[in-house]
Amino acid sequence: MNQAILVLNAGSSSLKFALYEADGNLPRLARGTFSGLPGPGRLRITGAGERTLTDQACRLRDHGAALRHLLAWLQDVFPDHELTAAGHRLVHGGTHFHVPLRIDTATRQKLDSLIPLAPLHMPHNLAAIDILSELCPELTQVACFDTAFHHNLPLREQQFALPREWFERGVRRYGFHGLSYEYIAAVLPQHLGAAAQGRVVVAHLGHGASLCALRDGQSVATTMGLTPLDGIPMATRPGSLDPGIVLHMMRTSDLDIAAMDELLNQRSGLLGLSGITGDMQALLASSHPHAAEAVDLFVYHTHRAIASLAAALGGLDALVFTAGIGENAPQIRARICHEAAWLGIRLDSEANAANRTCISQSGSAVSVWRIATDEEAVIARHTHRLLPNATKGESP
Fold it and tell me: What is the pLDDT of residue 169?
């Protein structure tokens, strides 16, 4: 019987997963998503070579039902594989959790203290752990934290100009998308060679979006702060705001904390500004002037963030685009690089349109790259390393 590792990323209305062979270089056997939870939704699963294994409508009452369905499907399709562990993406690690760890009873209890730091994400992340504990009580489970990659940010990057007691109470810049940045930092030497240790800005542009400045492959600055609301405008989040705006809106309307939370997380960003959608491809296809305004704002603030991070690095050697928009929207990459041409960026229009890996001209002072991220592979690798007597493979 072959051993396998299950990777889970539980959201409010989705459950993303991947299955890996627990041996050698951890080949991926399958990956998929339950969307539209709870209620009528869809299950899509692909196998090796992105071959479609299933694509069907499904109606599931909650994440527990989705996990039960998934375990039964895995047993049916991969009968010669036995789950040996599950790795989970946890959005927030707070001040104490900054390395992947095996989840025991004491650790699980401590993780509840992180819910106030990410109330829209952590309850779903933790629920997946609890459900799997009920379904497979003997299964090893591992927590991998999205904030961990930024744990060693310089102090001046972590601090806000608030009374010092709040820093001690955990109000600081944590940064997010760390599993994605960890993957990119690990594969950069394959593409950039020695330059991978230089001054690199990675733009993780997706439904949630942030940027990170790397030096020697380590995070030295990032755009998100205490929560994933900070930074550049996103699909449904506004990015950085004058904090007085929140106070003003609450004073002059009937918005309470819950309503304000919902507005900032679900109804702002590209969706709020356009009044149409938060989906970048749909905005690019729209002729509505508000759609164009939303795209312009996204490009503008992404360019500003690149400039800010280049200042933190003292210059720029390479720019990397990744995640949904970064990997699949050549128009957005082109517009951002056009705005940032003053940094020495010279985009290769043909390579960019073709979605190649290197998309800058040979004489560009700053090389530009399109690299697909793989957070699931990072989680699988960490989970595998925490198993006793595991055969160690290559880094992702």
Answer: 92
The arithmetic mean of pLDDT across residues 164-180, rounded, is 96
Helix, strand and coil in the chain, % to nearest 5: 40, 25, 35
Mean pLDDT of the chain: 94
Dihedral sign computed on CA atoms, order 174, 175, 176, 178: negative
Give the Cα separation of 217 and 152 in Å (integer).
12
Question: Quick check: 370 and 355 in contact, CB under 8 A?
Answer: yes
CB 379 within 8 A of CB 179: yes
Number of C-beta neighbours around residue 163 at 10 A: 10
Q: Which residues contact 218 (CB under 8 A, 6 or more apart)?
A: 152, 185
Q: How confident is the model over 341-364, as a mean pLDDT?
A: 97
Whole-angstrom distance, CA of residue 367 vs CA of residue 347: 9
Decide if 210 contacts 306 (C-beta within 8 A).
no
CA-wise closest residue to 178 among 224, 233, 142: 224
CA–CA distance, 15 with 67 (Å, rounded to integer): 8
User: Can you list the domains of the chain with their CATH numbers?
Assistant: 2-145 (3.30.420.40), 193-370 (3.30.420.40)
Token look-up 């050549």 returns 330
Q: Is the pLDDT of residue 395 over 50?
A: no
Q: Is the pTM of this model over 0.85?
A: yes
Chain-centroid distance of CA 91 in Å reads 9
- Asked whether the predicted pLDDT for residue 390 surpasses 90, the reply is no
Which DSSP string corresponds to 219-238?
A: EEEES--SSTTSSS--SS--
Q: Among residues 177, 154, 175, 158, which one has the least CA distance to residue 166?
A: 158
Q: What is the identity of the amino acid at 111?
A: L
Sign for the CA dihedral angle at 1, 31, 396, 355 comes to positive
Residue 234: closest CA among 294, 320, 281: 294
Write the single-letter amino acid at 150: H
Tokens representing 93 are 């690690």
Rounded Cα distance between 24 and 4, Å, is 12
Q: Mean pLDDT, to the nearest integer, of 88-112?
A: 94
SS3 of 275, please? coil
Please identify every residue annotated as catalytic.
146
